[in-house]
Amino acid sequence: MSTDADLQAEIARAAKTLAGVSAAASTISILESGLQIFMAIYGLSVWLDTSEEQRKRRLPYILLSFSILFLSVIPTYLGVADEFKVLYNSGPGIEYLDMKDAARSKWNQMLSYALIFAGNSGVLVSGSLVLYRCNLVRYDLRWIIILPRAIYLVLNGLSAYTLYEISKLDQNATANVHLSVAMLLLNVIFYILVTSLIIFRLLRGHSAVAKVLPGRSFTAHRGAISILVESALPLTICGFISGVVNAHINIGKGTQNWVTMFAVGYIFDALSTC
Questions:
Q1: Among its keywords, does the record have Transmembrane (predicted)?
Q2: Distance CA 4, CA 8 (A)
């Protein structure tokens, strides 16, 4: 009897934790979407204030920014709507977990496929833009970008294979977890490498120019370096923690405090996309 009571208590605690972190992750995702929408609209307003010649040169960047916005916002709000339906139509404990599983099983296969495709496409499009910037900055040493390019190609392959796995009717949950963790950690390594290469080049250029012009102010130059570092920090720190925690839970032998570990991994996974 006590064993059944302990099991029910564990299930109730797991359901409460899952509902809490799902709601928190949804809130974080909505805030991230708001920031992205603000930046996209601000970029559009600046673009509209420029001359016609500059607009032509900057139009691809505007289109790219709205493409990334669309690919990231649509999955976010569809996921939030799905979570709301589960919370509204279920009760506490095992009922919530059953409703969560039922929502996944009833979810349209094409919609699930489209959401994963949109999310992976957003990651790959933003990654291609970062790699393009690295190519522009590191034009002096092309060979040094070989490793980031190779990682980016592997990410493309993993993304395509993930879509293939999801399109199959007999989905392997463990294989999907392995793929997700591998993509997340590779993405973290990719951004660390590319950002480090760009920053190192900018610092060397800043040092060289400062020696030639010791009296000049380089506030704008240092500001650009700071922006690069700050933009890479969320994915680097939160993505790494999320990948390690999820790998420990799902790939390794697990942990007795799996509910807490799951909550940590879920929240840091949401924060990594900031």
A1: yes
A2: 6
